[in-house]
Amino acid sequence: MLMYFLVLICMSLLMIKKHLYIKTPKGTFDLYNLYTLLGYAIYIIFAVFRKIDIGGIGGTDAIAYFNFFMNANIPYFQYIKSMPIEIGFASVLWLLRRVTDNYLFILLLFHSITYILTLKFIRYIKCKNLVVIMLLNQILLSQFNTLRMSLCIIISMYVMIYIAQKQFCISSLLVLLAISIHNSAIILLPALITNFYFKNKRVNAYKISFIICAYMVVSYASYELLIYYFKNMSKYFLYINNIFSFAYLSYIFILLTILFGILKYKTLLKTNYINRAILLSMTALPICIFLNFKMPIFYRVALIFLQLSYILAATELRAFKFNKQNLLLSLIVLNTIYLYSGARIYNFFTIDLQYIGVPYISTIFR
User: Fold this and answer.
1) Number of other residues whose CB lies within 10 A of the CB of residue 269
2) pTM score, whole prediction
3) Cβ-Cβ contacts under 8 Å for 99 (sequence gap 6 or more)
């Protein structure tokens, strides 16, 4: 997977280059716009023009999404009822099928949306660290495998932006949109509630503890209802009894980034107010951990928290600069983030993308 690793590095470097020159004269097309287009072109060649076939070729779920689209040539309600995917995403596929029967157009559309939104988000949080940008950019390559989940995650990132700006109507609509694309986004509801409660209040440890306990009680009481809700997910039965679907290392990393964020809370707020929204949203993490023990499919929900933890890590790498005063703590934070990042990237390329393959040139002539 060396080729895809190089693609990720190239995209990340080009995004950094673009970010360094945020102020571009209006109405001009200079060299720095070219960096964005070049990164986009590299990504699209690999994302759109790849062979998709049974056996995971082109991505774990790639052939399933291809079939979902091709089967959308039937009446709407019949299609919605027959598809094991969320109504929002299914409706989009059905509408697009009315326009074209070329699946390359669908890949181009969804991957373009994700690329643009990821680039804009990285610029919003003002991240210049290559490793963190590579982690955030993994969402672009993971979209080869899980199209819906990647769209759901990128929407979740923008939910945090609007929460930080106290635009709760927009953030609520985005949460509903994310849920209509992938059921896992339901975890954003308690995150939204917590942020709304502390909208004009000072964060208090006792209140946070009470909210977490309340969430745990509600999740335990509604366990059977959640099983009924998630059993309609396309992979539910595949993971329902899979004991290996509990992401130990990911949860440890997320919890450590939360701890580091609390230690440098004031610094994180000064850097970007989105960090407050993310830390408050993490009050829903215990629900995910508890339900993941009971229901392995909840490992998917952890992917949302994992992406949010990368955003915290971007700020924490600046907050915990290597210095003599906090030498031990700085070493712990930096090593934690970089070691996990390296392990995550290695795992991604050796397991997640092992069936992707190189761009399949004959797809251009379909």
Assistant:
1) 15
2) 0.84
3) none
